[in-house]
Amino acid sequence: MSEPAAEGGDTPSPPGSISFVLATETGVDRAGPVLEVIGAALRPGDEAILLARSDGIADLPWPAPPWLRVVGIPEASIFGLRGRIPAVARREWIVLFEEHTYMTAATVAALRAMIEERRDLDLIVILGKNLTSISPWGWANFLHTFTRAWAPVAEPPPFAPVTSVALRRAALPGEAPLSDGEWELRIVPRLFATGRVGWANAIYIDHDRPMELVSCFTTNFHNGRAAGAQLRRLGVPAPRVVGEGWNDLTQRPQQLVEALAPRWHELPAGTAWRLRVVGLAACLGKTMGALLGPGRSPHLID
User: Where in the chain is the domain with CATH 3.90.550.10?
Assistant: First the structure.
C-alpha cells in the first residue's frame, strides 16, 4: 500500500483525539496484540496507523481491520518510519508504540485521562516495566534505557524514552517528514526540555525484548552505531560523539547502578557487570557510527 497524503493542517482535530501510531520496520507479524488493545480503545475522532517498511507489510498474518490505516515506506529503517509521523498523523495527540511494547486497556485509559485533564502538556512520558523479558540479559537491556523510567517511580523521570511516547501534534514543527534521527535526537528531547511534561505510574508499557548475551550485545551495538551516525548527520562533531560513547562505558553503568540501589533486590545477580557489557557495546557502536557511518545498523535493531 502506498503512503496516503496527510490531511491539511487547516482541518481541526477533535479536542483530545489521538493518532495511535505503531511503528515497526519488520515486526508487523508480531503487532497483533498491541493493535488489539488500540482497536478496542478507539473513540470517535481517533485514528490508528501502522507504519512499516513497504516490503514488511506483506508479512501481515491477518487482514488489516477497517479502522487501521497501513502506511508503507520503501526501504525505511525504524528511524525513517518514526520520521514520517508528522506527515501521516492527523489528530490532536500522537501516541507512539512499537510491536514489542505491550500495554493494557488500563494504560490507554490512564493516558487518555491525562490528555483530557492536562491541557497544559505537550508531552507525556510512557514509563516502562520488564514483565516478560526477565532473563538476566533481558533485564540489562531494559535497564540500559528504562532505569530512570522504570515504573513505579516516585518523582518525574529525568528523560522520556523516545520510542514509546505521547506528544501534542501542534508541538511538532510542521507536517514535513523528519530526517533520520530527528525524532529521537531533537524533537522528543526538545519537548521534554520545555517542562510541559506529564507522567503517571499507571501509564507504562511492558518492553518485551527477550535477550541473551549475543543478542543483547549486538542490539546495543547497532543502537549505538545508528545513534552515533545520526548525531554526526545532525552536525555533532565526531569527538563529542566518541566522548558520549566513552561515557556509556565509563560513567553511565555506575550511574545506573546508583539509581537502581533502592530496587536492587528485584534484579538478577550480576546485573552491575552486565550493565558494563551493555555500555561497552554502546561505546563501540557510537565510536564506529561517528567514524564510519551507520552501515546496516539502522535496519538491525527493530
Answer: 18-207
Q: Per-residue confidence at 14, pLDDT binned at 50, 70, 90? A: confident
- Say yes or no: domain 18-207 is CATH 3.90.550.10: yes
d(CA 217, CA 200): 31
Q: What is the pLDDT of residue 54?
A: 86
Say if residues 102 and 34 touch (Cβ distance below 8 Å): yes
| Per-residue pLDDT tens digits for 198-219 | 999 999 999 999 999 999 999 9
Cell of 191: 519537548
pLDDT in tens, 90-109: 999 999 999 999 999 999 99
